[in-house]
Amino acid sequence: MTRPQEYADGPIAALRRVAFLLERGREDTYKVKAFRGAAAALLPLDPDDVAAHVEAGTLSSIPGIGASSAAVVADAVRGVLPDRLARLEAEHGGPLAQGGSELLAQLRGDLHSHSDWSDGGSPIEEMAFTAMELGREYQLLTDHSPRLKVARGLSAERLARQLDVVDAVNDHLDATGAGEGFTLLKGIEVDILDDGSLDQTDELLARLDVRVASVHSKLRMDADAMTRRMLAAVHNPFVNVLGHCTGRLVTGGRGKRPESEFDARAVFEACAETGTAVEINSRPERRDPPTRLLELARDLGCLFAIDTDAHAPGQLDFLAYGAERAAAAGIEPDRIVTTWPKDRLLEWAAV
Fold it and tell me: Which residue, 26, 48, 232, 304, is the most exposed by fewest CB within 10 angstroms?
């Protein structure tokens, strides 16, 4: 991502960096939208016209530019480090985690992220560009499936259209040379239905690169029924990653939520048998699986995927939290599929 000394690259870069740091620090969404909206408003404008508005003091006359974003733009145009950016760098620009830095450096990608096609806050291309700027080799787009209506889950028709958009983003990156060494992968976070079946057609699931399957409903289901539900999903050949397996919330704006109850040993044994990766969900409010279950999955020989579950570009940096937990649990890097190069990852995920 754009670093503070590079604010002179222009006001759009400065605005994106401000938004990124707000997201990284889990600040209020309305603040983020103000700066990302301002960046989008400037994008089609001639830089000379923007500079003229700065000199005339009329930036706020541009739709989408408010007082706070105008101050950032004016400083950046004049070659001055914006005060807002300087403050955010001090507050949110440092390391997110105390440990796991060696493992973090070995992570090549992330298999769980959302765009504004479902419940994410930014367009697909912004998520891709940010992942690329963070040095990722691949980023899996995993918007929700149809049943999760509250998250605007994708119908089969919308998912099919999204696959074309992913192709277009990759084609653009290839054509411009901007995306050398980076690929946006096609994926889904597919709901595990009550009986363990998956909330999308086999035809579309077969067209995806990697598939994350998660429970989002009836989280307090009877333990035996939940175990059967999860086992059916893990044994489904389309499932590559078991997402946030307990569904718990430990902090954050949505409050707390207890773990789902299931036979973790049976589920993780099935993951080890089928080669399904257990997700280490890096969101601070999830920290899923809990440490005791993370260690159980480790001892049973499971593969893992350290994922951000990012719903905004700045949250793509959350990999640091997952790396810290995996390193503390002593999980070998080669058992973490997100340390693998793209070709090995895709071969593992192929149906």
Answer: 48
